[in-house]
Design a protein that fits this description.
alpha/beta
Length: 132
């Protein structure tokens, strides 16, 4: 018997390098939630990502639609990106509410110097918002 028939929408907040992707993968493995990883999706969509506002708007428009579709079909979603701004989190909360999902916000509080050391060696660009 399914005790919780509603899907979950997991939103992670934290510095780049704080462990959002590591935790997202873990949650996805343990709960069978779909892991939507914005960095990976951006690389798949754009040969040479610029992280421009136009590019980010395209990316997140698609990811928001995927999230809505998955939740509407009863599948839980781990949305792996920077949700450091209230407006970004609110937009996804609304998508979750429209699709009768449990919205779960996870705030990673990794010390800034550790997150910075993890993030800087990577080739990824670092932006404070999901909407660059």
């Amino acid at each position: 018997m399914n005790i919780n028939p509603k899907p979950n929408l997991y939103l992670l907040v934290g510095y780049p390098g704080s462990g959002k992707t590591t935790l997202s993968k873990y949650i996805s493995q343990k709960t069978n939630a779909v892991h939507l990883w914005a960095d990976q999706e951006r690389q798949a969509m754009f040969d040479f990502p610029s992280h421009s506002k136009k590019e980010s708007d395209q990316l997140y428009n698609i990811l928001d639609k995927k999230t809505s579709h998955l939740l509407a079909n009863g599948m839980s979603v781990v949305f792996d990106t920077n949700f450091n701004y209230f407006s970004d989190r609110q937009l996804l909360r609304e998508i979750g509410q429209k699709n009768n999902a449990n919205n779960l916000l996870i705030w990673l509080t990794t010390p800034k110097h550790i997150a910075k050391a993890r993030a800087l060696p990577s080739s990824r660009n670092i932006f404070p918002s999901r909407h660059a």
